[in-house]
Structure formats: C-alpha cells, structure tokens
Amino acid sequence: MRKASGMKLTNRLVAFVTIIVICAIFVIFIGGAVSFRKLGQDYLTHYIDGIVEVIDQELADPQGAQSLSRWLPKLLKASNVVELEVGSSSGVIYAFKGLQTVNDPTILQQSHYTLNHNPGFYINLKSLPPYTEFTYSIGAMSSISLAIAIIIMGLVRGVNWLRQQLYGSELLEHRGRLILAGKVDDNAVGDEQEWPATASLALDQMIAELKDARQERSRFDTFIRTHTFLDQLTGAANRVLFDSRLQSMVQDQETHGAVILIRISDWDELLAEKGKDVADELVQDVGMILSNQIQRYPDTVLSRYFDAEFAILLSQQSAKEVKLFTNQLLKALERLTPVAPLQPDNWCHIGVTFCSSGERRGRVMDEADMALRSAQLQGTNNWYAFQKDQQYEDARGSVRWRTLLDAVFNSGGPILYQQPALALDGETIVHRELLARIQDENGVLIKASRFLTAVEQVGFSARMDKQVIGQAIELLKNSPVNDSLSVNVSVEALLEKEFVRWLRDELLQTPRTVLNRLSIEIAESGLVKHLDAMRPVVRMIVGLGCKLVVDQAGRTIVSTHYIKDIKADYIKLHRGLVREIDQRQENQLFVRSMLGACANSNAQVIAVGVENEKEWRVLKQLGVQGGQGRFFAAELSVRQATKGNDKPDKTLFGR
Questions:
Q1: EAL domain location, by residue (predicted)?
Q2: How many CA atoms lie within 13 A of 524 on its CB side?
Q3: Residues 567 and 601 in one domain
Q4: CA–CA separation, 154 vs 344, rounded Å?
Q5: Could you give the number of structural domains in the chain?
Q6: Quick check: is 646 in a domain?
Q7: CB atoms within 10 A of CB 191
Q8: C-alpha–C-alpha distance, residues 489 and 468, integer Å
Q9: What's residue 567's pLDDT?
Q10: Burial of 602 (0-12, 13-18, 19+ CB in 10 A)
C-alpha cells in the first residue's frame, strides 16, 4: 500500500535549493583556492627562474663570479630562499643558508637547475612556499566575506519567497493528511489559498460526491432492510422477521415467552364497503395502540402478521405478566371505535400461547391461532389463552426481584462468565465477552436474558454495570497483556449523568495499557434511539483508550449512518440473524447490507451465536471478520477460563 510522505513539499524544495547553493559556494571556494595556490606557485617558480638566470650570467663573467657573495645573499633573502648551493662535479663553489627559523622543514620547496652558460654547473635551492607567512586579514578577506553575506541574504530571501509561493500547496497537503487520518467531514471544503486551485476544487467536489454516495448507500441499505423485514403501512415487523425471531427464541437455551395474535374481524367486508384507505387507517390506529403498549417491554417484537392480523412476541415474561399485559391490551383496543360494518363490541380478538426452548415454531403459531379462534367463538371482544402444561410460572414480582438483586450486589456482584470472539482463522481471540449470571435463593444460576428486564424495571442498571465494569478492570490488571475483555453497558445507565461521571473517573484512574484491552458494548437500538445524547459519551470512552462495540446489530431496523458517526471498532450481529442463516436468504441480504455499510469504515463485523459449521461457512462467504458462539467455544466461568479451558475445542464441535 502506498504511504504518504512524511516531509512537506515546501521543505523538500527549500532543502533542495539550499543544498544547491551551498554546493555551488563550496565548488567556487575550492576552485578559487586551488587557482590561488597555483598562481602563487607559478609566480614563485618564475621569480626563482629569474634568479637562476642572473646567477648563470654572472658566473660566465669572471668578475661577476667574484662579486656573488656581495649581492646574492640580499637577493635570496628577499626571494624567501632559505638555502642555495652552486657547484659542479669538482665541488661546491658557493653555498648560502638563511638565518630565518623554519618550524617545519618539510614545507620547503626544493628545486634543481643546470646552468646553460656554464656547462657542468648546477644550482640546488630550498625556498618557502608562497603565502606561508601570511595571516588572516579582515581587509584582505572583506570582499570575500561581503560576497558570502550577499549570497546568504539572497538565499534567505529566496527561501522565504519560495515558502510564500508554496503556502497554498502546504495547505492542500495538510488537508490531505487530515483526510487520510479519517477527518473527512471536518475538511470537506478547502481554504481559498490552497494551490493548485484545480486540485483543491476537484478534492472538494469528490468529497461532496462521496458524502452524497454514503448517504445514498445508507438510505438504500435502510430501504432494503425496511422492505425486507418491515411492514410498509404500520412500520412494524413483517411476518418474515417475526418468524425469524420466534425461531431464534425457541432454539436458544433457557428461554421462554408468549405469542399473542390480534385479529380484526370482518376485515374483508370493511375493505369492500369502505375501501382500502379507510381499512388502512384502522390498521394504522391498531398498530399505534399496540406499539405504545409494548414500550415497557424492551425485547418485544410487534409484527403485522397478515393484512388484518398482528402478532406480538413477549420474551422472558411469566404467565401472570403476559395475562396482565393481554388484559391491558384488550382494554386499549376497545377504546378505539371502528367504523361500520365492524361491530364495536365484537371486532377484535386475541389469542395467547406460551412457548419455551425446544418447541417447534409452527406448533407455537398453530396454538396461538387455535386460541384466537376460541376467542372469536365467544362473540365479543375477548382474549383466550391456549391451555398447555409448559407455561412458565414465575411469580417473582418487582419487589422480589429488587430483594434478590440487592442481595446479589451486596454480596460481591454477579458471577461472570465469558465467551471468546474469534477472528476468521478460528484461533486468534479478538476479545472475551463477559456475561453476567446471578444465583437465586435456591442457588440456581439465572442468565442475563432472564433478569436484565427486571434490572431495568427496578432501576438497577447503573448499579449492575458499575459492578461488572469494576470486576472487568480488576481482571485485566491481573491478566496477561495480550488478553482483552468486552463488557456490556446498558444505554439506560449511560444516560445517567452520575454514572457517566463515575465511569469517567474510573477510566481515568486506570492505566492506559489496561484501557486499550477493554471494550465497551452498547446495544444498537438504544444507541441509535438516543444518538445525540450518546455521542459525547461514546467519544469520551474512545478518547480514553477503550474500544467501542455495537451489540445486537439488526435486532431492530435502523439506519446504519451511525457507524460512520461514532466510529465503532466492532459491530456484533444479533444472534437472530445468524441462526440458520444458511437457510434464510433474507438474513443473508441483511448481513450483506450491514457489511456494505461498514465497508468504508474501520468497523469489523462479528457474527454472534454461531452454532454449526454451515452457518459459519455462509458467514465467511458473506464477508464477516469474526465469529462468536458455541461452534467455537462454550460459555465458561471466568475462573475456568483463567485455567486455560476456554480454547476452541475443535473435536467437540466437529471441526
């Protein structure tokens, strides 16, 4: 992958010009010094040649040879000749040695001459090199110093001018670095001084088109999911989504709930007499009433099962609570006055059946339909519950739940289990998700899916999350440096200012090396519903070094634009999408849509609830980046996991 250069364009050009100028000055100085030395050497040689010529002529004259000792020493001293020797094969006829002190005799220049007018005679002499006795002089070097100063001033002015001319390119390069760092939205429009202007305008246009394309992609993905899983008239789930969630619930372990069917009688007559608009308006009114009634049950699915029939899936609720809810539902519907030909006292009927793990989805829906027909036979607005022995009777109300939870929190908090999330290779652990369990009065373990609703109802969400986060941080401090943990935090707790302040202080007191191994999981539905309030909280969590995980993605149909907004590290698919995905084309379409929404972000998609190899094979073909479920490793208590028993067991799961 091509990487951006770490050196600015202006710095490159300035460095290039400076090096060129310095090299030019250096070459000129070296050349001048060599030339200066050569000129001095030639001058000395020429001067000594003249002395030798004079001596040669004087030796040819008998009278001149006798006067050498009188005038020659003065000439030699003035010419910086230290030693001179005139001789022939017969011997030395004249010798001279100056009185000046030479510290380093090796610097003396030796010369040998043969005399043309006096054959057989020679002259050997030693002289000082030129400029040996000269020292630095400001006056002598002033011109050179002035030239250097002018060159430096010109260089500084030229560099400043070059920086001014290239300031626009620096702005453009700086914006490019910010865009590569992921800050596209903050740098969508460039400064007017950016240069080249055409490149800046082209970048502005491309970013604008990219933003439009992303929004269009998000709208298109939402459109696909909406038309695949939602009813277009009421906005409730359609039959496909309802059947998928019911199938997922009955296949999970230790789950129970109820299916409630609501049917509008004489629908065909209403449609024939009043037309589609009036009939659709009645359906919308009924859908609004049902939607308002289920608000206090967070994990409830409302579906328009047929044209005149709605279905509600209540999970983890006791038979007593389901019956109370059904009575309230019927009273709310009776306050609605239907138009003729519907009879005000005999237009809506409700059928209820209970279900639990291990039952068949088709059998459950048949029981609900039989209960609905029984209610219709009574001839008035009424409801009827299918009689079966598998009703989940849990008489624990809010008071008993509060007492139990309070005892759990006072005794050290919930018991933590963990399950690893693995990368595509099935070996590399992305993180270990902590799962809370509590013990009831009889010592029986209760899963989070059963008691979390009660935690929210009694207002203990923040208290629960504080204890789980505290235990997770202590585990990370005492665990190996390559071990990462993920903790589920409820949106209800994050909406409390007191809890957010506690969380901030707790994270600030924790070393950065520990926070980098901690992931915070937030449910998608609550995150999107309260996105404006959650945005600063999420930024605080990420800014302190924790990783952000969006959990239960796909449980509700929401826009995926939040992925780019909050910059999540991981997106965990809801287990209802993963269950039997090899047999459900609509779930595969949803997962493709989610992967497409994460394509231009750093978020990695992890499939939760993988139970067999067929599901995992399809998920890998779709392009998920990781998986979590019993196919890789079962849920183990933290104590067992610390003993090394949480490694994926390939033989156990047929891998």
A1: 398-649
A2: 21
A3: yes
A4: 98
A5: 3
A6: no
A7: 14
A8: 9
A9: 83
A10: exposed
What angle do helix axes 585-597 and 239-251 make, rounded to 10 degrees? Answer: 100
Tokens standing for 593? 């849509």
> Does the N-terminal peptide bond of residue 536 adopt cis geometry, omega within 30 degrees of 0?
no
Same domain, 353 and 404: no
User: Closest Cα partner for 389 from 410, 425, 359?
Assistant: 359
Secondary structure percentages of the chain, helix, strand, coil, to 5: 55, 20, 30
Is residue 654 situated within a structural domain? no
In a domain, 173, yes or no: no
* Strand locations in 183-340 (E): 256-264, 301-306, 309-315
Residue 537 has a pLDDT of 94
What span, in angstroms and rounded, lies between the C-alpha atoms of 494 and 449?
A: 20
- Which residues are CB-contacts of 376 (< 8 A; sequence separation ≥ 6)? 263, 265, 349
Please check whether residue 171 is in contact with residue 190, taking contact to mean a CB–CB distance below 8 angstroms.
Answer: yes
In this structure, of 176-185, 514-523, 549-558, the range with the lowest mean pLDDT score is 176-185
Q: What pLDDT, on a 0 to 100 scale, did the predictor assign at position 471?
A: 93
Statement to judge: residues 440 and 585 lie in one domain: yes
Q: How close are the terminal C-alpha atoms of the chain, in Å?
A: 35
Helix (H) or strand (E) holding 250: helix 239-251
For residue 290, the SS3 value is helix
pLDDT tens string 407-436: 998 888 899 999 999 998 888 999 999 999
d(CA 448, CA 169): 57
Both 411 and 378 in one domain: the answer is: no
Nearest residue to 403 (alpha-carbon basis) of 445, 436, 451: 451
Residues 6+ apart with CB under 8 A from 356: 250, 255, 256, 257, 390, 392
Q: Residue 454: left (phi > 0), alpha (psi -120 to 50), or beta?
A: alpha
Last residue of some domain: 104, 134, 164?
A: 134
CATH number at residue 322: 3.30.70.270
Do 71 and 129 belong to one domain? yes
- Mean pLDDT along residues 138-145: 70
What is the tens place of the pLDDT at every residue in 26-70? Answer: 888 788 778 877 887 787 788 888 888 888 888 877 776 667 777
User: SS3 for 581?
Assistant: helix
Q: Which residues span the domain enclosing 496?
A: 398-449+460-639
Q: Do residues 424 and 568 both lie within one domain?
A: yes
* Rounded (10°) CA dihedral 194, 197, 202, 203: -10
**Per-residue pLDDT, 119:** 85
Is residue 412 located within the same domain as residue 281? no
The CA-CA-CA angle for residues 152, 153, 159, to 5°, reads 90
Longest Cα–Cα distance in the chain? 166
3-state secondary structure of 488: strand
Residues 337 and 483 occupy one common structural domain: no
Kindly give the pairing relationship between strand 415-423 and strand 382-385.
Answer: unpaired
- Alpha-carbon distance of 85 to 83, in angstroms, equals 7
Q: What is the pLDDT of residues 624-642, one digit of tens each?
A: 999 999 999 988 988 765 5
Q: Which helix (H) or strand (E) holds 446?
A: strand 445-447
Of 105, 134, 163, the residue at which a domain comes to its end is 134
